[in-house]
Amino acid sequence: MAIGEIAAYVAEHLRQNGIDVVLTGGSCVTIYTDNRYQSYDLDFIEEGRAGRKKIAEILKKIGFKERDRYFIHPDTHFFVEFPAGPLAIGDEPVRDVAHLEYATGTLRLLSCTDCVKDRLAHYYHWKDRQCLDQAVMVASVAEVDLEEIERWSRHEGMEKEFERVRALLKAN
Is the separation of the CB atoms in 79 and 70 below 8 Å? Predict the structure, then answer.
């Protein structure tokens, strides 16, 4: 299965067992850029408080085993992780979640605009240049709301940094 299919499969299985999750991080970049960037880490933020033990029991039913902080499956190179919530970018909660339909289920994930903001957060706060490159990749293939990204950047105290990268996000 491709990354979106496996992510939807996991998310759908969790949803059917009462746990709603949203895909975040680099795997959203992989999906939106049609594999121009490759992530093998499926970062899901749980909406609610089912807890790791319940998640582990549910994922075990579909062949995933817990190893350290990850869940792995012998039939895929993708691994699943559940970073701590809440679902937010910087200190702002995510308001709108995108949905993609696959034969394996429905995948809830960051919107293209929020994906760019998520990657820029890593660039702004941890100087991760690879994340800036990922934000530019998404902006080059998807419609993103630059005004919203600018507003959020100001809120994060990164207005000057946004001005430096705006041209990169627009150029594509």
Answer: yes
- For domain 3-110, the CATH architecture is 2-Layer Sandwich (3.30)
* One pLDDT digit (tens) per residue for the chain, 172 residues: 999 999 999 999 999 999 999 999 999 999 999 999 999 999 999 998 888 999 999 999 999 999 999 999 999 999 999 999 999 999 899 999 999 999 999 999 999 999 999 999 999 999 999 999 999 999 999 999 999 999 999 999 999 999 999 999 986 5
Residue 41 near residue 23, CB atoms below 8 Å:
no
Return the bridge partners of 106, or none: 101
Domain map (residue ranges) of the chain: 3-110, 113-171
Q: Is 93 exposed, middle or buried (0-12, 13-18, 19+ CB in 10 A)?
A: exposed
